[in-house]
Amino acid sequence: MEFAELIKTPRADNAVLHGPRCPAVRGTLCLTGHHLIFSSRRKEGGEELWLLHANIDCVEKRFVGSLGTIVIKCKDLRIIQLDIPGMEECLNIASSIEALSTLDSITLMYPFFYRPMFEVVEDGWRSYLPEQEFELLSSVTDEWRLSCANKDFSVCPTYPPVVIIPKCIDDEALRKVAVFRYGGRFPVLSYYHKKNGMVMMRSSQPLTGTNGRRCKEDEKLINATLRPGKRGYIIDTRSLNVAQQARAKGGGFEQEVYYPQWRRIHKCIERFNILQESLIKLVEACNDQSHNMDRWLSKLEASNWLTHIKEILTAACLAAQCIDREGASVLVHGSDGTDSTLQVTSLAQIILDPRCRTIRGFEALVVREWLQAGHPFQLRCAQSAYSNTKQKWEAPVFLLFLDCVWQILRQFPCSFEFNEQFLIMLFEHAYASQFGTFLGNNENERSKLKLTQKTMSLWSWVNRSEELARFKNPLFEANSLVIWPSVAPQSLQLWEGVFLRWNRPSKFLDEAQEEVLNIINYNRELQAKVNALRRQLAELETDDRMQENLTLPVMNGVSSQAGNGLTQTSLKQLPSRSWQWEGEERRKK
Amino acid sequence: MEHIRTTKVEQVKLLDRFSTSNKSLTGTLYLTATHLLFIDSSRRETWILHHHIAAVEKLPLTTSGCPLVIQCKNFRIVHFVVPRERDCHDVYNSLLQLSRTAKYEELYAFSYNPKQNESEQVKGWQLIDLAEEYKRMGVPNDYWQLSDANRDYKICETYPRDLYVPRTASKPIIVGSSKFRSKGRFPVLSYYHKDKKAAICRCSQPLSGFSARCLEDEHMLQAISKANPSNRYMYVMDTRPKLNAMANRAAGKGYENEDNYSNIRFQFVGIENIHVMRSSLQKLLEVSGTKGLSVNDFLSGLESSGWLRHIKAVLDAAVFLVKAIAVESASVLVHCSDGWDRTSQVCSLGALLLDSYYRTIKGFMVLIEKDWISFGHKFSDRCCQLDGDPKEISPVFTQFLESVWNLMEQFPQAFEYNEAFLLQIHEHVHSCQFGNFLGNCQKEREELKLKEKTYSLWPFLLDEQKKYQNPLYSPDFSPELTLLEPNTVSFNFKFWRNMYHQFDRSMHPRQSVYDLIMNMSEQNKQLEKDIKELEAKIKQKNGQPDAVILKEHQQSAHPAPVALKTPPCFKKEQPLIPVNDAVRTIEGSNTADNRYSEFMEEFSKAEPAVVSLEYGVARMTC
């Protein structure tokens, strides 16, 4: 086994672990193929740290005499420090960790070795299939069809084998459109707004080049989504400047002359290394507690992180606005259609579609709009904020998306079935996981890796009731409305749950959170009890009355009537949580 | 009334403060003796107390009318457009007159009549009794006594009559020391820590100049440190930046020379003066009031305003004070220049961190009465209650409230009161509706006969205390909470949106977990009551009460299967407690709240051939 060669020293005794926000502990350090394990010798508590090598972003070592210190910076932004006696041991361990955390072959990653300790009730790999999605769609419209033109990934290598396209476009035309779009990413359906039948599509940039090439099939495809006499909007996630420059490299944007029914709006969402730099600067600022106020604020500003959040949210609101308020269809694309495009389309759906605010709906969204849509997770999430090897394809695109969701969640804390922990969990698993879900860059790569057979899906684990309990928002109230977040800078906040998680004591905040839960649970308990008591009292009262009426011959008829009345009233009396929306509906009427 | 030139103007537009496309409501503007009232076409009312008006500005005439901008002390900003210039001029002049009061007797508090009878009024004023509060702290005792030196305000006009000083500080020492202190504000007890036997004392700067000394003052400090049996030395905290303190020496004032005082440890903590704070807030409001603000402009504006830096400095000073007392059991003497601004901030926050009593609703009232009102924080000057020197205005008390808010954010369970309580107090510090905050010191208040002519705010707040109760509060939830040890790392300080944008609804979360929990915990109390009643009724109906209750307990865990058979009378049952719809309202469901509608308006206009980049940006940035 290759791992044995990489592990020069498998074990170090008398090591000292300095974790964030906890006192130093002495114990034994062990290295396995996929984990760094530290167990303290103290019996009580039995503290053990299991750290996935894949979670390690960067390893630093320094020496004071013969005492070596290894600083391990993780992708989930945690920093731990290990003091290891003996210079050679320390060097060995450091280089072993380094080697194990930078394995270049995907098939050596932990998900290929992980065996679940839980019973698999539902295979997460089959939880969210495009066919199911299409079935839902066809129950409301017949204008779309499922195309298998890409079943061998030959039309577009980064698309899934089946996609949803307008019914009137045949596979032949589709191939022509694919040639006209960067990376073959032709326009496909991203979201159907049931309320008014408007749609959101996504694609990559058209390859117009400098001489303004056109493609009639492309025009036909996207026009097929327009109602007669209606206009649509193309949201280009690049600034006009950038889009114009792209023409020199063969890319470009839809020309007005060829797309007269479409109106183009440019929004500038940053990409790649600019985002990575932003994350690095933000994390740096958050990790230095010695900053005075001015320095902290100027560092926070210089990171530009919240600016990116605002830009992305604004673009998503714009797309949602076009669809819901303007009653227009929308096509979203940037250059590749794999990053900012997906941020916009997925956030717009969270704003518009109540289903995406449920746990399963959100998981389906991540699968549909990120995994199947071909966001290159492997490339983007290879490193996090601490890595020294800055590759230009690394970018916290998905983390920014999660942060935006968190911002909306904060503004509508009762409208989401999941809580902040759920988002943090997704962030962690996108960067390092025992599950295969986020491996690979697209469905093509995933099918070659045979992930569905060889690894476990994250959803198989999450969707078990034991795990779900941790991720449920106790205040959730299904809300069928469109939710418009505020994007004013005063309304946006630093996501402390991720960026300050390891830097500030959270004891009091956690306890307060617990108290919130207690109040909610107590409320439910009391409501149930009141209902039960009322029923019992009512029962006693009828018993009385029945005794009085016992002599009446029509007794049977009365009681069956009573039974019917009950089913309705008792529904109302139960602590059903639907009452909250009654007022809302009344107002709408 | 003679100031009101026009009482009613119709067809007035109220502009949305942050709208980029001048969205507005149309309605009628009314001027009353005490309020400005705007009623829009959907009958929504906006009331603005004249005393809350900080500034009125008439902008140049536009095609739609004459704009009038009103800035309020509670950070509300309203922007009217009056169709006729003459009307606008009249309203403007009336408001100028009405918002600038020359005499205390013209303030709202003297005409406000809450329909209380005389005895209620008297009782209201007796609600907070400072003598009682000192007793609670444990003074007088073997070391501290009540001094009658200032009974007639002869030694210090801006101090209260009743002052606590060390037993060993004789009257000549007090008099001598007061002569050596700015405005006669000699060292007195502000808070006594029973367990540590350590005291927080307060005073003003010494008149030391470059070399002057005063034996009585030195004795005074010695008396204070000797009044603490657990520690020989004491801290003297000068809350000013060192440079300011040194500059004061040239004017014959200054700070204590460690060589002249035995056993003192002298420390500067660097809180800026009222003028710096005033302009800091000014800058903060300019930034937060900008239309179409970018994140970076907001953050750099926040930084350059220095506001959060000042809040942190105040809280850092309080933390320093608390450490001296809690860790070293040392007494601390706090002063600044006059000892009524920064000193009040630091002493009151220190006590709040040390003593959980001040984290109760009643205790917080006591704290404000003691360290702010009685010790002569110049509320009238700082809040510009009367038309006076604009250089005296400063948000010192607002900073205190903001520091408390920051503590609440860090310790959500430590406070009996909530943010709404702080906001309400802030509202009334400026409203001049109640007598508590009128005037600059106790002597002045007595001369104004406030207790006879006006009402006290506190009983009104207590009456509606349900609104101000923190549902998460747990008074004895952990002993460590008696002492709060806040973390003052910079990232813990946040912009207080609910204070500075209290009236800008679109900026706030559309659903409030806090309100929901507050309602729920209120509802829980009612449900507990219902259960008792129901159980009693069942007991009555049933011969064997115990068995029933037991059965009920089992049932309550599984409410679903209970729906077996119910009689028709079930319908007549009372519904569950009505839940306040308002809490559940999702305001954001209306795009108008978010100004996306502006974007929509733009859409409906004739479309330009080319969509410019600015188009999207300008429309969508809110």
Automatic annotation (TrEMBL), chain A:
Q: What is its main location?
A: membrane
Keywords on this record?
Acetylation, Cell membrane, Cell projection, Coiled coil, Cytoplasm, Endoplasmic reticulum, Membrane
Cite the InterPro entries for this sequence. Myotubularin (IPR030564), Myotubularin-like_Pase_dom (IPR010569), PH-GRAM_MTMR6-9 (IPR048994), PH-like_dom_sf (IPR011993), Prot-tyrosine_phosphatase-like (IPR029021)
Q: Show the coiled coil region(s).
A: 509-550
Question: Per the UniProt entry, what are the Gene Ontology biological process annotations, in alphabetical order?
Answer: negative regulation of autophagy; phosphatidylinositol dephosphorylation
The record ties this protein, via Pfam families, to:
Myotub-related (PF06602), PH-GRAM_MTMR6-like (PF21098)
Query: How is the protein disposed in the membrane?
Result: Peripheral membrane protein
Q: Does the keyword Cell membrane apply?
A: yes
Task: Report domain Myotubularin phosphatase positions.
Answer: 124-499
What family name appears in the similarity comment? Belongs to the protein-tyrosine phosphatase family. Non-receptor class myotubularin subfamily.
**What name goes with this protein?**
Myotubularin-related protein 9
Which organism is this entry from?
A: Cairina moschata (Muscovy duck)
TrEMBL record, chain B:
Task: Give the record's keywords alphabetically.
Answer: Coiled coil, Hydrolase, Lipid metabolism
Residue runs in coiled coils: 517-544
Q: Where is the active site?
A: C336 (phosphocysteine intermediate)
Record's keyword annotation contains Coiled coil:
yes
Could you tell me which SUPFAM superfamilies the record lists for this protein? (Phosphotyrosine protein) phosphatases II, PH domain-like
Q: Name one Pfam family in it.
A: PH-GRAM_MTMR6-like
Q: Where are the transmembrane segments?
A: none
Question: Where does the Myotubularin phosphatase domain start and stop, copy by copy?
Answer: 124-500
The domain of life for this entry's organism is Eukaryota
Give the family from UniProt: Belongs to the protein-tyrosine phosphatase family. Non-receptor class myotubularin subfamily.
Report the protein name in the record: Myotubularin related protein 6
Source species: Cairina moschata
The opening ranks of the lineage are: Eukaryota, Metazoa, Chordata, Craniata, Vertebrata
